[in-house]
Amino acid sequence: MKVTMLLCDAAQVADGKLYILGGGWSLTGPEPVPSAIALKVEVGWHEVDTPHHWELFLEDADGRPVLVATPEGSQPVEVRGEFQVTRPTTVPEGTPIDVALAVNLGPLPLEPDSRYIWRLSIDGEANEDWALAFTTRPLPPA
Fold first, then answer.
1. Which stretches of the chain are DSSP H helices?
2. Which band of pLDDT confidence, cut at 50, 70 and 90, is reported for residue 87?
3. SS3 sequence of 71-111
């Protein structure tokens, strides 16, 4: 599969298309703000009509999971979902089929002046290109 990922302020999928607001950034904060990840997945012709499981994991610069406080205690920041595509009758045989996904996130309490990476896996497989790195700004001088 081929995946295109983009950090943005907000994203939505409608009629198979991605609608992206404030896309293409890699610097945020330092205060927590909402964000989103827009994904375009090209599913190979031979992989249609099969359910696919995807997962996004937020890691720090050292590759450790980012933890946030929850009522159940500290939990890693992770998002999961499923998708399945069918073969359109009007598409020539062998053509990859596009899937648009939008993951909207509430404000995350991230450390200022730090580097983070969202990593994607599909069906348990990861690719070094399926990653989005970003940095949080330092706190302003007091």
1. none
2. confident
3. CCEEEECEEEEEECCCCCCCCCCCCCEEEEEEEEECCCCCC
Q: Which residues contact 29 (CB under 8 A, 6 or more apart)?
A: 110, 112, 136, 137
Tokens 């980012």 belong to: 66
Tell which wins on pLDDT, 48 or 137: 137
Residue 141 has pLDDT above 90, yes or no: no
| CA atoms of 110 and 113, how far apart (whole Å) | 9
* Amino acid 51: pLDDT: 95
d(CA 33, CA 25): 13
The rounded distance, in Å, linking the Cα atoms of 116 and 65 is: 10
